[in-house]
Amino acid sequence: MPTIIGPIRHDGVLVSVEVGLGSAAVHALRAQHKAVPPAIQKTGLIDSGAEITTLDTALVQQMRQQLGLQYLTVIPSTAPALGFNGIAVVYPIGFVILHPQGQHLVNRTLLIQELPISQLGYDVLIGRDVLASCRFVYEGRAGQFEVSY
Length: 149
Hints:
The chain is α+β, with helices and mostly antiparallel strands. Helix content is 16%, strand content 46%. The chain is globular. The mean pLDDT is 94.
């Protein structure tokens, strides 16, 4: 079982991620014999209080411009830390948590919401939708976390 072990930093549990096009968009490009744009690497915060993985608005705009990302639907959403209570746009993306030895956690189509989270200091919040397929240990006394999948 691949495991990522790391320090709990002053700003939380951070892991390296890649965000890109979801599998339907990738298949459509390949069917047209077009190149698939490379994914974008970011640092994500594991947020066990978040129900759904969230990307910052600026990152989504970058993905729309560089990758041709298109929205799927909208959902009601609440983000108390942002003072947000309204409708969030949902996108199907490819999402990968990068493992140092290459045993990555890959989700070919993950539905994420777009919210202006950069004001909290992050581009990516990894929610319980991703953590549901993992074992997540937050060992505060040791100052260490562990994610196994």
